[in-house]
Amino acid sequence: MIKRLAMAALIAALGSQLSACHTTQQPVPHAKGYETYINPGDIFKHTQLTNIDGQPVVLARGKKLVILFATWCSDSQRTLNELKASALLTDPTLQIIAIGREEDADTLKAFRTSFGIDFQLVADPDRAIYQHYANKGIPRLIMLDEHNRVVNTLIGEQPGIIEQVRWR
């Protein structure tokens, strides 16, 4: 009796695993347990966003850099400082959009002023946007091409991450 129950459980578990493999894309693993839910070649899911001033953010036809970050995160602050010091900030063919994970518009407005940011900021107070792209880990950098297709994704925990931002 126990053998039959064990065999039935094994068959049920194996069957559910096999059927799930065909219906869902597996996230990209990371040593710290981070998962990325969007991969090169995928289309960016959010084509309509609203910035912290209540204005629509239209994804431009050129290259885009989307940064998922938090104001309190030292890695996010370092990445934004690297961005501000880079040539990316002055590239007229590049649109930069930073999405504050678990941040509200008022907090991001104060951060924009104190940190001297002059690119689009979008509030994501309940992770409604973030949850489509990752399970954890910030800052996240998503490079998009002119058709909003993902070129690459990076997790910006180490210094020098902005140097790795490239469109092939």
What is the architecture at the second tier of CATH?
3-Layer(aba) Sandwich
* Main CATH class: Alpha Beta
Ends distance:
60 Å
Helix content: 25-40%
Strands of the largest sheet, in order across it? Answer: 5-4-3-6-7
Strand content: 15-25%
Number-wise, the strands total: 7
Shape: globular
Name the CATH superfamily classification: Glutaredoxin
CATH fold call: Glutaredoxin
The SS-based structural class is alpha/beta
Signal peptide: 1-20
Protein name: Redoxin domain protein
InterPro entries: Redoxin (IPR013740), Thioredoxin-like_sf (IPR036249), Thioredoxin_ResA/DsbE_sf (IPR050553)
Domain Redoxin: 44-159
In short, what is this structure?
With 168 residues, the chain is an alpha/beta fold. It is built from three helices and seven strands.
How is this structure best described in words?
By secondary structure, the protein is of the alpha/beta class. 26% of the residues lie in helices and 22% in strands. The protein has one domain: Glutaredoxin (3-Layer(aba) Sandwich). The longest helix is centred in the N-terminal third of the chain and has 22 residues. It has 3 helices and 7 strands. A 5-stranded mixed β-sheet has the order 5-4-3-6-7. It has a two-stranded antiparallel ribbon with strand order 1-2. Strand 3, helix 2 and strand 4 form a beta-alpha-beta unit. It is globular.
